[in-house]
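Need residues for this backbone.
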């Protein structure tokens, strides 16, 4: 198969070496990633922290196969993502990655269940949409339209949609950025539940230092690099978090 690596570490979900990303806009170039090396173990709960513009979303988009590094190599398990063509990268993303963004991106004319079904209809081994909605605590809201749901409930539908295809990895970019503390905690609980029950590797970008305590590790970004790695021996449960 394309891009197999001989020195494979089977305990890792992602391994990146020397990842660089340069955005070129006309005359201006921005070095968003400046030589990032990383290893993300399977089943890890990882938080990316750092100031605005430090490269967190750029890295998340690259590990999720939405974008490519300018240079460097990136592996997901035994597959070298940086050796895949566009079709193969899309196939990887569809099969393995669930994305959750700050704004929920639900289709307003579809019910919660139908929003989830959009994904399960094209997945290989999906959950029933109602089971995914039950897992996020919305069994009684399946027939509601997004406008009939609160912001936190809409985000939980987005989590259900992301986990329903049983992805190996959940990538979350400011998943609680638009939510107040108690609503945000319920969303974090659904991420923790997917992590615990499905063994999903979870990567969360946040500006909120309060959230970082639920992670196994925290990567601190600065100027396109990982400035510091913090290991958390005792991750706390989301219900103990507030901000
Ligand atoms: N598509 C793009 N074209 C040009 N420059 C970009 C593009 N995307 C990001 N950048 C630049 O790359 C740098 C890193 O951006 P990135 O979005 O990865 O940072 P971030 O840490 O996620 O920031 P935030 O916390 O504000 O979302 C920034 O200087 C940004 O302006």
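Answer:
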């Amino acid at each position: 198969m394309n891009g197999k690596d001989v020195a494979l570490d089977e305990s890792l979900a992602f391994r990146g070496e020397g990842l660089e990303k340069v955005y070129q806009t006309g005359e201006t170039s921005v070095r968003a990633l400046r030589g990032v090396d990383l290893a993300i173990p399977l089943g890890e709960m990882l938080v990316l922290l750092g100031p605005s513009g430090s490269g967190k979303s750029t890295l998340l988009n690259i590990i999720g196969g939405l974008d490519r590094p300018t240079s460097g190599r990136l592996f997901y398990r035994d597959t070298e993502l940086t050796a895949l063509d566009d079709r193969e990268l899309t196939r990887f993303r569809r099969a393995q990655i669930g994305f959750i963004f700050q704004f929920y991106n639900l289709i307003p004319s579809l019910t919660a269940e139908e929003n989830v079904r959009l994904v399960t209809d094209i997945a290989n081994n999906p959950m029933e949409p109602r089971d995914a909605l039950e897992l996020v605590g919305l069994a009684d809201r399946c027939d509601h339209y997004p406008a009939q749901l609160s912001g936190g409930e809409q985000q939980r539908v987005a989590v259900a949609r992301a986990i329903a295809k049983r992805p190996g990895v959940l990538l979350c970019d400011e998943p609680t950025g638009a939510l107040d503390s108690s609503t945000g905690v319920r969303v974090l609980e659904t991420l923790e539940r997917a992590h615990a029950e499905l063994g999903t590797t979870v990567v969360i970008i946040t500006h909120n230092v309060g959230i970082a305590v639920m992670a196994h590790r925290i990567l601190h970004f600065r100027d396109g690099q990982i400035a510091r790695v913090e290991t958390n021996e005792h991750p706390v449960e989301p219900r103990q978090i507030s901000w």
